[in-house]
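Question: does this match?
>
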Amino acid sequence: MEERKLKAVIETAILKEREAHEFYLDLYNLVDDMIAKDALCFLADEEKKHEDFLQKYLQGSYGADALRGDEVIDYGIAQFLEMPDIGQGMAAKDVYLVAAHRELNSYNFYKNLADIHPNGEVKDLLLAMANQELKHKEKVEYLYSNTAFPQTDGG
């Protein structure tokens, strides 16, 4: 029974990662800013790597401890700023804020799923995936803050 539950959780996670990959590629087509496009390509690639990891995990190639749990800084920007509307020609800062909201939702998905599982391999895997999504959020919030509030010549 536990094996079936694990498979269902992983298959759901694979679908979420595939959706995230497609979301970033779709967003890429709405953006003119080349730096923002590069960031979206990076995020799409990361989501594809997550999908590939989960596929291999499902096939028994990896254990739950295969993902590193580096410490992440949560700037909290997405929690306090509303997500801007998605549209053609979005400003780079808005692209990063949309991405931060997407990563926050992904983090919450994995974290909430982990919270309902008992300690063990499934919970460890879900927490590791949540941490990966939080890392992405950290990156795009950093890009947001540097784009929305650029440093002036004075310091």
In short: The chain is about 70% helix and 0% strand. The two ends are 60 Å apart (CA to CA). Helices lie at 2-28, 34-58, 77-80, 92-115, 121-148. The chain has one domain: 2-148.
